[in-house]
Write a structure and sequence with these properties.
The complex is a heterodimer. Chain A has one domain: Rossmann fold (3-Layer(aba) Sandwich), CATH 3.40.50.10420. Chain A contains six helices and twelve strands. In chain A, the strands form three sheets. A six-stranded parallel beta sheet of chain A has the order 1-12-7-4-2-3. Chain A is globular and about 50 Å long. Chain A starts with a helix and ends with a strand. By secondary structure, chain B is an alpha/beta fold. Chain B has three domains: 256 residues, NagB/RpiA/CoA transferase-like (Rossmann fold), CATH 3.40.50.10420; 194 residues, no CATH class; 105 residues. In chain B, 57% of the residues are buried. In chain B, helix 2 packs across helix 12 and helix 29 crosses helix 31. Chain B is elongated, with a radius of gyration of 28 Å. The interface between A and B is large, with 64 and 80 residues. Strand 9 of chain A pairs antiparallel with strand 9 of chain B. Bound molecules: iron/sulfur cluster (SF4) (2 copies). Chain B: It comes from Megalodesulfovibrio gigas (strain ATCC 19364 / DSM 1382 / NCIMB 9332 / VKM B-1759) (Desulfovibrio gigas). Chain B: GO terms for molecular function: 4 iron, 4 sulfur cluster binding; metal ion binding; oxidoreductase activity.
Chain lengths: 208, 721
């Protein structure tokens, strides 16, 4: 399978589960995309994640813990990258979080992460989530924006089996295959997105 | 859950389900949508190859469960996981309650685990004063309703949005809209608080990978990730059968599991947890992790030569998705905790004979589950074996014993059938859909059999017609060279009820220089006995048939009864496997068996006479399309006969005959039949043909009772003559 065929297959399968796949040219583009995604989100997208529903008072109290401005969690960014990213977010009035996700369980707007691998056959991304901050960010965010380097895209899960196995054997390890947004069909088999995790998954394909 | 004490009570419960319109409609829609979804999901994958690989790998793991457990434990303990082995359900529950106590846990969040359902873990923990919340949406709903799951993958499939809205209104103390999207968001918010508060998270596990001590979890909602991340303590509860040697084995199953379960390429999340990960809720930032393995009979099962294959099950739930009986009555009536075909079997092993004994009788033996199982488990046969085991343990009912005694004695059995011809005479009349019927049902038949007209026993059985001249008529003239040697196997229905169909079948084979025999010592194939759990008698008649026609003498053994064909081919070698003196013959016999349509179409290559240009539709007998994987030949024959083949909706779905099943579970049989008839009428055909006299009996009998449009019902052989 050529790289192009793999990309096409990946896109097709990811879109089948309503993930967005967007080609980008550089990490800078990725930052800009994540920030735009945060700003362009419906003013109060938390509405669709349940704040607007008639929930019990205890559940409602958790929502009130969410502080004002919009939040992007970028737990993997360090030093120079983080500085560059924060500079961009500050201009747009967005708060950046790299830790303390447990204080934001009611929800944050965007999680910005990278991926370790992409699996074309199923349109999945693979993220080594041993870091608790990273793991939580990708669950409590309403939109997950993930950068996948083209060189890390493979055809089948078998193709990264050895690498994954090696990581698992360096325990502790917490490996996640993520395919589309969190979903359920538990009520009358009707598909509903965002039952526990993100409502949207955007995969940024970065050409090396 | 099974609470019925008697078969009558169980049947009354079934009736309630049949009357539940919402359930029926939901399961009907699901059954149809599932098939397409699955087919698409497996496109481009060598499915039979994958199934064979999974079956072989699982068999290998099952054979060394103890070894894999020891390996997992060693690797797990080296990285700080506490590993426990629970011999029984109670022991598992006690271990988990103790872990909660030792770690001062009061509140628990759970992600879906069928194993925890099996041990009734929630009850135990709640009795200990712990507060448990299910976080999988469907599981949460049924927990709030104090119910068990009605499907392994979609536990709340039996409930409507209105019922869920009412339930959520009670929980939130606010009025809830019945909009599904909104209800899901309410659950999201309500449950998020529970994670935030919980001290302990309990998950199941789809895989326990021995060489790295990794737990694999497959979910769509992502709740398992929160359950295993937020609380201080993580306990994973898994059946011992989830042990698998390497990541590769798990990835292989992952290729089949979601595709087969819901037609998804993969679930939204597949999570692999190895060892205690970072956990901000713990003082040392390290999760407290326990893995509890449940035996509860699995180790014994692994040593049972007949039943060890049930441990191959990957819990995809597909055997319920395709089961026509599940589709009628739903999971609460087609299982105890585990549901569907595998549920019938596991109930016996995990929950005992009392819970299983009515359930296992409610299988119509349509083979749909076997055809869909990604682990290649021969579910229908095992269900019948359990039925037989239960009868061995509890005593065989009179009916089955009598049937067994009668059928073992061919002369007696055939004598009775001949006598029936005389006894029924005053009641027989000609039908409008073909054949002769008994006009007034004799009193021995219950009123609930009235949904289908019963055929009359024929004036002259096939065996007499054969001797009286048919034999000479269709065989090559003396001196002519015979190209092959064929034995005909009629089965009882063709011999004694519809001999004209078998005459047509025999005539369709004439003129091709085949030397055709009808060995006179042949008897019933024995499937009805197997269906009633009378295995020794089934073995006995198998033996008689084997001796009646020596397979070494024939190139083919042809039968135009799909059920006989599949029973002769697949069950005979199994039935006679512990007879070393006969096992080889049984296999040789099985290899020569071929169904009528395949024989005339593929072997003889008969070009039938030009037919009448009618619109003809088809019913695919369970034992032909799935039992023998024959699909092309009959349809090609219809077209070749000069008629127009018009497809019928759900052609491969069971007609509800099932031999003695229709007697026992008349209402389910009738519901299946009515659906079949509706589809046949809707096809616009004037004739419906099929490959099995049992299906003819059911469909013709039902059509005869219908008011209004009548479609003629024939055996496919009758189309060719
Ligand atoms: S054989 Fe048919 S009726 Fe029996 S369990 Fe399987 S699918 Fe259901
Ligand atoms: S028996 Fe087969 S089809 Fe049924 S749940 Fe298990 S793996 Fe799936």
């Amino acid at each position: 399978m050529t790289k192009q065929e793999m990309v096409d297959l990946f896109r097709q399968k990811a879109e089948l589960v309503s993930a967005k796949v967007i080609p980008i040219a550089s990490m800078k583009d990725a930052y800009a995309y994540a920030i735009d995604a945060c700003v362009n989100k419906e003013a109060c997208q938390l509405l669709i994640s349940g704040c607007g529903e008639a929930i019990s008072d205890t559940a409602g109290a958790l929502c009130e813990q969410k502080p004002a401005p919009r939040i992007v969690a970028a737990p993997q960014l360090k030093d120079k990258e983080l500085k560059a990213f924060t500079k961009l977010t500050e201009e747009r009035g967005i708060q950046v979080l790299t830790q303390g996700m447990r204080q934001h369980l009611a929800g944050i707007d965007v999680a910005f992460t990278t991926c370790d691998y992409g699996i074309a056959e199923t349109g999945s991304i693979v993220i080594d989530s041993a870091s608790e901050e990273l793991r939580l960010a990708t669950m409590i965010a309403e939109v997950h924006v993930a950068v996948l380097r083209l060189k890390d895209l493979v055809h089948m899960a078998y193709d990264v089996e050895q690498q994954l196995d090696a990581r698992m054997k360096k325990a502790p390890s917490y490996m996640a295959f993520i395919t589309g947004a969190s979903r359920t069909a538990d009520i009358e088999r009707v598909l509903a997105i965002g039952v526990h995790g993100p409502l949207e998954l955007h995969i940024l394909l970065l050409e090396d | 859950m099974q609470t019925a004490q008697t078969l009558e009570q169980y049947k009354a419960e079934l009736r309630d389900s049949l009357d539940n319109e919402f359930l029926r409609k939901t399961l009907d829609n699901f059954a149809v949508a599932y098939r397409t979804g699955r087919e698409n999901a497996f496109k481009g994958i060598d499915l039979p190859g994958l199934i064979a690989e999974i079956a072989a790998a699982k068999d290998d793991s099952v054979a060394r469960l103890d070894e894999l457990y020891a390996e997992f434990k060693k690797n797990a303990e080296a990285i700080g996981i506490h590993v426990h082995m629970a011999r029984t359900a109670l022991e598992a529950n006690e271990i988990i309650a103790r872990i909660a106590e030792e770690n001062n846990c009061k509140t628990i969040v759970k992600s879906k685990s069928m194993t925890a359902e099996e041990t009734l873990l929630n009850h135990h923990l709640e009795d200990k004063g712990l507060h448990v919340t299910e976080t999988d949406l469907g599981e949460w709903i049924i927990q709030l309703r104090h119910e068990g799951p009605s499907h392994m993958v979609m536990p709340a499939i039996h409930l409507s949005r209105y019922q869920v809205a009412d339930l959520f209104s009670q929980v939130t103390k606010k009025d809830q809209d019945s909009d599904i999207q909104k209800l899901v968001k309410v659950a999201r918010r309500e449950l998020r608080v529970k994670y935030a508060e919980a001290d302990m998270g309990i998950s199941g596990g789809n895989f326990a990978i021995a060489d790295s001590a990794t737990i694999g979890l497959v979910t769509n909602e992502g709740n398992a990730r929160l359950v295993t991340t937020l609380p201080r303590v993580h306990v994973a509860l898994l059946g011992l059968d989830k042990l698998t040697p390497t990541l590769h084995d798990a990835l292989r199953v992952l290729r089949a599991l979601p595709r087969n379960a819901t037609g998804q390429q993969i679930t939204s999340y597949a999570t692999w947890i190895t060892g205690p990960n970072e956990c901000g809720a713990c003082e040392d930032n390290k999760k407290i992790m326990h893995v509890v393995f449940l035996d509860n009979g699995r180790r014994a099962l692994a040593k049972d030569p007949d039943f060890k294959q049930v441990l191959r099950c990957v819990r995809c739930g597909a055997c319920a998705n395709v089961c026509p009986v599940y589709r009628m009555v739903g999971g609460h009536k087609y299982g105890h905790i585990y549901i569907g075909a595998i549920g019938l079997i596991l109930t016996y092993f995990f929950h005992g004979r009392e819970k299983a004994k009515h359930l296992v009788q409610n299988c119509i033996n349509c083979q749909s589950c076997k055809a869909i199982c990604p682990a290649g488990i021969d579910l229908p046969r095992l269900i019948k074996e359990i039925h037989a085991r239960i009868q061995n343990e509890e005593g065989h009912p009179m009916q089955g014993q009598l049937l067994g005694m009668m059928m073992k004695n061919r002369k007696l059995f055939h004598g009775l059938l001949r006598a029936a011809n005389w006894a029924q005479r005053p009641f027989v009349g000609k039908g409008q859909t073909g054949g002769r019927f008994i006009r007034h049902l004799p009193m021995v038949f219950a009123k609930d059999q009235d949904f289908r007209a019963l055929p009359a026993v024929a004036e002259t059985p096939f065996r007499d017609l054969w001797e009286k001249g048919l034999k000479q008529e269709i065989n090559p003239k003396p001196g002519q060279h015979a190209s092959m040697k064929v034995a005909l196997f009629s089965g009882c229905v063709h011999d004694f009820v519809y001999p004209e169909q078998f005459v047509a079948a025999a005539k369709a084979m004439a003129g091709k220089n085949a030397q055709i025999d009808y060995p006179m010592q042949q008897s019933c194939c024995g499937l009805p006995l197997q269906m009633m759990g009378e295995l020794p008698a089934a073995r006995d008649v198998a033996l008689q048939n084997l001796l009646a026609m020596d397979p070494a003498e024939y190139d083919y053994i042809v039968t135009s009864c799909a059920s006989c064909a599949s029973h002769l081919k697949h069950n005979y070698p199994k039935l006679l496997e512990d007879r070393p003196d006969l096992a080889f013959k049984a296999t040789q016999f099985a290899e020569k068996v071929i169904d009528f349509s395949s024989f005339v179409h593929d072997v003889l290559k008969v070009a039938p006479k030009t037919g009448a240009g009618k619109k003809v539709t088809y019913h695919a007998p369970c034992h032909l399309c799935r039992g023998l994987d024959v699909r092309e030949a009959p349809r090609a024959l219809i077209s070749a006969s000069g008629n127009e083949y018009v497809p019928c909706a759900e052609e491969e779905v069971c007609c509800g005959f099932g031999g003695t099943y229709g007697m026992k579970f008349a209402e389910i049989s009738n519901t299946l039949l009515q659906k079949k008839l509706d589809n046949i009428v809707a096809s616009g055909a004037s004739v419906i043909v099929t490959d099995c006299p049992g299906c003819v009996m059911q469909i013709r009998g039902g059509m005869e009772k219908r008011q209004g449009q009548k479609v003629e019902v024939k055996h496919i052989a009758e189309l060719l003559g």
